[in-house]
Amino acid sequence: MDSAALNKLSAVSTSSGEANCEVSIVMPCLDESETVGTCVTKALATLKQLRISGEVLVVDNGSNDGSAEIARRAGARVVTESRRGYGNALQRGVAEAKAPFIIMADADDSYDLSELGGFVNDLRSGCDLVMGSRSLGNIEPGAMPWLHRRVGNPGLSGILKLFFRGKVSDPHCGMRAFTKDAYRRMRLTSRGMEFASEMVIKAVLGGMRISEIPITLRRDGRMRHGPHLRSFRDGWRHLRYMLLLSPTHLFVIPGAICTLLGLIPLVMLRHGPESVSSMTFDYHYMILGSLLTILGFQAIMTGLFAKAYCHAARLYAPDLVLEAFRRHFTLERGLMVGALLLMAGFGVDAKILISWLRSGMGALGAIRPATEASTLMIIGAQIIFSSFFLSLLGFTAEEGLATNNTVAGHETLAVQGTGTGQGAVTAKDRDGQSARGQLA
């Protein structure tokens, strides 16, 4: 079933008390008494002008300036979220919203709420997520600090596009719309400002249909206090979340680079020192190479652990590299490779020991082969233990197939047991993402 059909079905499936509500405009609010009333009034006026049946829902996140009462008098429905945080407030708002279509916007009067029509039209046409884009639209002078406009927002947006191959021009825009069905499939959990990044990432990974609407960002109407956004703290929260959700860029790529840099001196210096111009590289660099190789290999394995865990937990479909590795990996093959490297290292050490005994147990100058041997043994041991751990996660082809069949069997029984099928979870829904979703 395509997105348009899902959206129409979601709209029809609302309860009788909510059947006439098509759009819920959700506004998180923390001490916005100067602007929240204006925002609510503008939003309601736009809904009336566009002849859209909807509501304005303000989520009070612990205001002490009467913001909740002002919003209520302006015509909004007000709910309270005691847990502080942008993500917490929005999650509560979506849970309380009556409509199948959700539009979220800030309560500081920085977004032009007369631009709601384009968001609703795109949702009606089948989009799962409609992003407002300040970069495609207009940013008025003074509306965004120079640091955010020239450094923070472009930098974080570029990282998101690089890590997750998304094509959203302004992924951190606070004005966006989505369907409740898409929101449930995203399974969002972030509590703070990183909620905005998580939504876009989950939508991209899930292969959801995303569109963009050019919007205008204006200088907010606050006079008594500044913005709630904290440049470095919240910027780090966004970056941290993107890194944690991208094992490839956090572990695998740095690990591969580190391993390659370590192997170069290990191989080049194994027979003796090498000179380049006036510089001489001796066994000290070989020891450094051993360290880099071991560290890099451990980072690569940690990346595989993270990918395997996400696949085993059915968070995302595996990427192409993971799937190819998974098809060929078995516990026995991993143990065999690890054992071969371990025995090769022991063999080199045994050769050193025999040579030392034959020389009368005098001075031992076998630093180079000993370095090679220790590197081989450590990586061999890592492969052995990593193979067991990956197998424990159900990473092998046979175990993964058995797990999938077991899960599918349980889900089939769940569907049969419900009779009507309501509340049952299908294999695709349980994944939470489509087959196109990939862990970066």
Q: What's the CATH class of the largest domain, please?
A: Alpha Beta
Query: What percentage of residues falls in helices of 4 or more residues?
Result: 55-70%
CATH superfamily of the largest domain: Spore Coat Polysaccharide Biosynthesis Protein SpsA, Chain A
- Overall number of structural domains: 2
The CATH topology of the largest domain turns out to be: Spore Coat Polysaccharide Biosynthesis Protein SpsA, Chain A
Largest sheet: 7 strands, mixed
CATH hierarchy: architecture of the largest domain: Alpha-Beta Complex
How far from one another are the termini? 26 Å
Shape: elongated
Radius of gyration (Å): 28 Å
Poorly predicted parts: 6-17, 399-438
Strands across the major sheet, in which order?
A: 3-2-1-4-6-5-7
> Can you count the beta strands?
9
Give the topology string: H per helix, E per strand: HEHEHEHEHEHEHHEHHEEHHHHHH
Mean pLDDT: 85
Return the structural class: alpha/beta
Strand content: 5-15%
Query: If helices are DSSP runs of H or I spanning 4 or more residues, what is the number of helices?
Result: 16
